[in-house]
Amino acid sequence: MLLRHTRLFGVLAAVAFAASAYLVPSTASAVEYSGKKITILVPFKEGGGADTIARLFQPYLKKYLPGNPTVIVRNKPGGGSVKGANDFERRAKKDGTTVMVISTSTLVAYVIGGKKIKYDVLKWRPVFSTPQDTVFYVRPETGVKGKDIVADIKALRKFKGLIFGAKNPTSAELRALITFEMLGIEVKTVFGLSSGKQRKALRRGEIHINYDSASAYNKKVKDYVKKGEAVPLMTLGYPLPDGTIVKSSEYPDMPTVLEAYQKLYGKMPSGPSFEAWKNFANMGVSASKGMVLPRGTPDDVRDAWIKTVKNIYQDKDFKNRALKILGNYPPQFGDDAAKVYKNATDMKPKVKEWLKAWISNKFNVTL
Questions:
Q1: I want to staple 224 with a disulfide (CB 3.0 to 4.6 A). Which of 27, 229, 249, 296 is the partner?
Q2: Which CATH number fits domain 11-131+287-348: 3.40.190.150, 3.50.50.60, 2.40.50.100, 3.40.50.1370?
Q3: How far is residue 345's CA from residue 145's CA, in Å, rounded to a whole number?
Q4: Residue 294 has what DSSP assignment?
Q5: Which pLDDT tens digit goes with each residue over 21-36?
Q6: Is the pLDDT of residue 16 over 90?
Q7: Count of beta carbons in the 10 Å neighbourhood of residue 258
Q8: Band of residue 48 on the pLDDT scale cut at 50, 70, 90
Q9: Looking at the domain that runs over 134-283+350-362, which CATH code has it been given?
């Protein structure tokens, strides 16, 4: 694993968007949806991040899919996306008339496993994934100044009663909790808090440290920072499909977790906790949001969808709207998106054993 520091968007966005010019197999032209209904399945309730992605793409899919079909969004929440993902696994047709928005929670549930998980992420056929960096921020009374990451982490280590909020011990917040473990930051975790409740709790001083996706941070937290109610700390960084973790251009002055670790300890992290962290960093950043077709979808159908989404990313109106929601992060298409999902969910047995033991010891929860 190599940590590179670079201004990503100027280079990677050009590469990603230039990909729209790549030719897809000629069989893609045979795929046609005139008079048909396309369903975007969202395994979450209305109004969340996955739902926002679905409704962002909805009108453009109608415009660019062959035949200009009707496109609807169907929300099927439950079990942190498990109910909808299971439904997609069982019922989605292989003709491209149903696509599902995939999110970090879907991937976390798959990795954690259990009897309720009836889907296999690695058998789905990715259309694209769009990353979102993760930003950590804290209350000012913790002593964090946002100028020296080593001094800031030492301040957090000294702060008595540092509180973090999460949905449950096996939710997407594991990417934050494992980060704290790696950096030696002791936190008391209060469960039962959604992302919105976490932000409100931090603003009231009921919790002291939190994180958000880049879009949520930019939209909902930067005002807290301007008012002195929160101090930015660090980001997870941006894992590329080849496994390299780089600094995103969105936050060039904010250190990444790996930078923080290297400055604290003078070396790169290693061992099962770091391997688990890499899986969760991929889940929470590179695979933050995307769309997948069901297992068994023919290549020509998948290629038609990929070509459609590449065309959407070239639409000027879409670019303007997407910038506010998705930020300056280039998408990954097809096989590259599949690599992202594999990096996120293909956890080695010894790492999964470490994760199970760690969750059991930390939160008294048996997986």
A1: 229
A2: 3.40.190.150
A3: 35
A4: P
A5: 333 443 445 899 999 9
A6: no
A7: 24
A8: confident
A9: 3.40.190.10
Distance CA 130, CA 277 (A): 20
Residue 102 backbone dihedrals phi, psi, to 5 degrees: -105, 145
Q: What predicted TM-score, i.e. pTM, was given to this entire model?
A: 0.84
What's the pLDDT at 164?
98
With b meaning 16 or more CB within 10 Å and e meaning fewer, what string describes 14-34?
A: eebeebeeeebeeebeebebe
Torsion over CA: 199, 203, 209, 215 (sign): positive
Rounded Cα–Cα distance for residues 184 and 262 (Å):
13
Radius of gyration of the chain (CA): 20
Decide: 249 and 294 in contact? Cβ < 8 Å: no
- d(CA 10, CA 199) in angstroms, rounded, equals 31
For 70, residues 6+ apart whose C-beta sits below 8 A from its C-beta are: 36, 37, 38, 62
Q: N- to C-terminal Cα distance for the chain?
A: 29
Torsion region of 271: left, alpha or beta (phi above 0 gives left; psi -120 to 50 gives alpha): left
Q: Which residues contact 84 (CB under 8 A, 6 or more apart)?
A: 41, 42, 43, 44, 75, 76, 77, 78, 100
Question: In angstroms, rounded to a whole number, what is the distance separating the alpha carbons of residues 244 and 271?
Answer: 17
Contact of 294 with 125, CB cutoff 8 Å: yes
Instruction: Evaluate whether 11-131+287-348 and 134-283+350-362 have a shared fold.
Output: yes
For the chain, the domains span 11-131+287-348, 134-283+350-362
Bridge partners (DSSP) of residue 101 are 291
